[in-house]
Amino acid sequence: MTHSPPPDLLAWLAEHLPGPATAADCSWPRATSRVWRISSPDGGAAFLKISPDDDMFAREVAGHAYAARFLPERQVPRLLASEPRLRALLSTALPGRVVRDLPLERGAELRLHEDAGRLLRHWHDRSDAGSAAHRVAVRAAMGAYAREAAECREALAGRVPNDVLALVGAAATQTPDLADRLPLLFLHGDYATRNWLIDTATGRHALIDFEQTRYGLAVEEFVWLLGALWPEHPDLRDAFFTGYGRPLDVVEERLLLLLTVRLGASYLCTGLREGRVDLQERGRLALGRMAAHPFRS
Q1: Are residues 247 and 152 in the same domain?
Q2: Which of 104, 112, 216, 261 is deepest in the core (most CB within 10 A)?
Q3: How far apart are CA 124 and CA 79, in angstroms?
Q4: 84 and 67: one domain?
Q5: Handedness of CA 221, 222, 223, 224 (dihedral sign)
Q6: Which range marks the domain in which residue 64 is found?
């Protein structure tokens, strides 16, 4: 089902993009995603977005400001206008296609992952160390992850192999201490292939979607990549960290593993509770991959 922008949003858009324009719905297939590609007769294009809530709107505005300050225009979109009352954002359109599910020649995919690692390192290197309030927020988040892992361990007893159950238990007991040993950075927060663009004509890589930007730990950027992609394609991981410019240390590796275990356990428990086979399969796959990970013990 496609949706048109509501009238008040179109009126606001007309103040910033005068002249006739067409809006094509390009939202993700979930209720909270509302995004349109705006095209004008002269060939110009922009993206119009309604943030799901006030916090995500504020994060996206802050993320755009950070990206505009530190990253080149060809690699991140620029925010053209925003309206808190409507939670509306208007940004430039970059050339390229979303990488998720895009078939790429192997060499191009390796170069893409190296470029993605390089871009993220550039993003991280420009960050300050955050404040005491940011550290408190991260501790609260990690504590919540640990409590969720403990609940999942109880729910999954007898439903998963013992080595998997032990990993979920480790996520419950070790996550807060490991997180406290690592520095804070300003994160993109959703560094998955759905937010990467590639211009296949030039090979250039770009980054979109800043609604999850926040202070946190560098390894939080890699959880989706480890759970969904890297175990089956270790050469992509190698290429990514070649671009990133350094390997993870032992504490980072362990915490990354446990955060990914927590996510997999959460998928599985939610799937079992709600009868959703897709989440059960996703959770079991992630947990099985983590049980075979080199830093599992």
Answers
A1: yes
A2: 261
A3: 20
A4: yes
A5: positive
A6: 7-93
